[in-house]
Design a protein that fits this description.
elongated; five-stranded mixed sheet; single chain
Length: about 675
């Protein structure tokens, strides 16, 4: 097992086929900017509006006195009232000779275009003024009403607002396209296209099966899929069919994505890679459209592999959402995926590889045979797997002679591939920070402490009284764990603050596949040893045991309600593996049973607490010696407990023999035969 983020990522920007590769010449084509079209159109409309009018004669604005004078002298041929706002005055021959001698009249004796304009105030008063002024004249001029519209202004009144809306819409869609990783102004039209990244023969993927350590069983099944794509005749001649889907399931950091990258590097067939969240979008129908486009592209390049990371983003069980109504868009995307994987259409040569750490919430229709024919469980590595992972991540490190991979594998139980990669990186950083030329054993141990407990806070202000309480608290944990058979043996205790804790203890847990009631009970006693030490030594307790109480409460509740380890409740488990119990308004047991559960949990915790007090009372001198040494040196190790309390009578010799035998078997060394001893020795 290996960390999926440290070795040879398939998204290397310096690989051929990637946008930033130096062998690719950048495109120098200048794209035409659509904004110039809008600028030109706007300029044309403005030009037509201002320069497209008939300007034969100037439109001089006159006042009421001059208008009255021309009316009395009969110099006006006609008056047009335009839109009840402006009066346009047309002169006759007499008026033209008087005011515009160079302008010739039309055949009717009146100029073609208005000579003057007059701004009217009140329409009634204007008409009355014209009528009274021409009283007694034989051929008076009558006002004619004209309704006139400027088509350029009307068009601009409609076009400009819509044009601005279109420009704003295009700018908005461009921004959305950039945010969604699209390509420029056309992104809105490509929103239904698949965003899968294609790796083919022109793309160099550096990750191979050699970079995957600690996943031997998973590699066997994955390598069979790759072998089927390379040599299909080997299987088809016997009537076998290629599996349609392979689902990788396991905790975070165990190497699922790395395993998929190794397939891309080994298969030599087109490999489409994307995340489940790439199908999800704010627009309805986009997810289903992207699924269709993805499989259409895959069919055109078959045989090929589609890898969907974190498939639970779209594969969650339908109709079981905590929110009423659910997410119809996500469900339509899932329905389309189900249809594409095994519907009426054929997908010959297309294998779907998916990864998730939430297999319990996936839809049952997605997990059935014919869609995901195989489910490969990628678990946390054992001691042999951890050693192999250390070897992979130590390839590029400058190591000291005292670095022992077997020892580091024993010191990191429960670590995933990502955790081990982080340990190696932190060790290198610590060695560089100290100015060393190589990474030694202590750097790795400090890195493990840094990852588990957090950064040391030596400058944190702690009073002598608080330091004494913390020392006895941690000494209580160490003492009880050392004196109990099934508690985890101590490796290191410190009262230097780390992270959010004021003190920390490191244990070496046994790698068990099953746990008995007595083993869990001993762990509870050791967890309560810190608070019990405060009670035994100081006669009072503090708030420093919050995390201990939380851990013990959850453990006791699990023993009673989940594992059926309580005599009063019996062989009953109220555990819900589907996860739907969290959304239920009622518990799967009655109120009377709930009272019994509370009583049994409290009784179990109190019994463990009293036993911890009893152990520490009987070993008060050793507890005080250990705490005083911790106050003096701030750090103690397992050797100090062995010196004070002696060797553990039951020991862990058999466990150590099994671990060493497994490590030797992994290296190909013959396993040492145990001595013939009586069973009760």
């Amino acid at each position: 097992m290996n960390n999926n983020e440290t070795k040879g990522s398939g998204n290397n920007p310096n690989q051929p086929g990637q946008p930033n590769h130096p062998s690719q010449k950048p495109k120098d084509k200048k794209r035409f900017n659509l904004m110039w079209i809008y600028v030109i159109l706007f300029a044309v409309l403005i030009g037509v509006n201002f320069f497209g009018r008939d300007n034969v004669t100037p439109h001089e604005e006159i006042d009421q006195g001059k208008l009255v004078e021309m009316l009395k002298k009969q110099e006006i041929g006609k008056i047009e009232l335009v839109n009840h706002e402006d009066a346009e005055v047309y002169l006759n021959e007499k008026g033209l000779k008087m005011h515009f001698p160079d302008v010739k009249p039309a055949s009717d004796g009146i100029t073609k275009s208005p000579n003057y304009t007059y701004k009217i105030g009140s329409l009634d008063r204007f008409e009355e003024m014209v009528e009274n002024t021409q009283e007694g004249i034989d051929n008076p001029v009558y006002i004619s009403n004209v309704k006139r519209s400027n088509w350029v202004s009307d068009i601009l009144a409609w076009v400009v607002p819509f044009g601005l809306l279109i420009v704003f819409y295009i700018i908005l869609m461009r921004g959305m396209g950039r945010n969604m990783g699209g390509g420029g102004a056309g992104s809105i039209f490509n929103i239904g296209k698949s965003r899968a990244q294609l790796y083919d023969k022109n793309t160099n993927v550096n990750v191979t099966f050699k970079d995957v350590a600690g996943l031997e069983e998973a590699k066997v099944e994955i390598m069979e899929v790759v072998d089927f794509l390379k040599n299909p005749e080997k299987y088809t001649k016997l009537g076998g069919k290629i599996p349609k889907g392979v689902l990788l399931v396991g905790p975070p950091g165990t190497g699922k994505t790395l395993l998929a990258k190794s397939v891309a590097g080994e298969a030599n067939v087109p490999f489409f890679s994307l995340s489940g969240s790439d199908f999800v979008e704010m627009f309805v129908g986009v997810g289903a459209s992207r699924v269709r486009d993805l499989f259409n592209n895959a069919k055109s390049k078959a045989p090929c592999i589609i890898f969907i990371d974190e498939i639970d983003a779209i594969g969650r069980a339908r109709g079981k959402s905590a929110i009423t109504g659910g997410n119809d868009e996500r469900e339509s995307t899932l329905n389309q995926l189900l249809t594409e994987m095994d519907g009426f259409g054929t997908n010959s040569g297309v294998i779907v590889l998916a990864a998730t750490n939430r297999a319990d919430i996936l839809d049952k229709a997605l997990l059935r045979a014919g869609r995901f024919d195989r489910q490969i469980y990628v678990e946390l590595p054992d001691i042999v797997g951890r050693k192999e992972i250390f070897e992979v991540h130590m390839r590029g490190l400058k190591l000291g002679k005292d670095v022992d991979k077997d020892f580091l594998a024993k010191q990191t139980p429960g670590f995933s591939g990502a955790d081990i990669a982080n340990v190696c990186n932190e060790a290198a950083l610590m060695a560089a920070r100290k100015g060393k030329n190589e990474i030694d054993k202590q750097d790795f141990l400090d890195a493990v402490d840094r990852i588990i407990g957090g950064l040391e806070k030596k400058n944190k202000i702690i009073t002598p009284e608080e330091k004494k309480v913390i020392a006895f608290h941690e000494a209580g944990h160490a003492t009880t764990s050392w004196l109990l058979q099934y508690a985890h043996p101590l490796v290191k205790v410190t009262i230097v603050p780390r992270g959010n804790s004021l003190g920390a203890a490191w244990y070496l847990p046994e790698e068990r596949q099953i746990t008995t009631k007595e083993q869990m009970y001993h762990e509870m006693i050791a967890t309560l040893g810190g608070r019990a030490a405060e009670q035994v030594v100081f006669g009072q307790i503090s708030t420093g045991a919050l995390s201990d109480l939380e851990k013990v409460t959850k453990q006791a509740f699990a023993m009673v309600t989940y594992y059926g380890l309580d005599e009063e409740i019996g062989n009953i488990s109220y555990y819900d593996s589907t996860g739907q119990q969290d959304y239920s308004l009622t518990k799967p047991y009655s109120e009377k049973t709930a009272e019994t559960i509370d009583k049994e949990v409290s009784k179990l915790i109190e019994k463990a607490y009293q036993e911890a007090i009893s152990i520490l009372t009987n070993h008060r001198d050793g507890l005080s010696e250990l705490a005083n040494k911790l106050i003096e040196e701030e750090v103690i190790f397992g050797e100090d407990l062995e010196r004070i309390f002696g060797k553990r009578p039951w020991g862990n010799s058999e466990d150590e023999k099994l671990k060493n035998a497994a490590l030797k078997a992994a290296e190909g060394e013959p396993e040492a035969q145990p001595d013939n001893q009586p069973e009760n020795a």
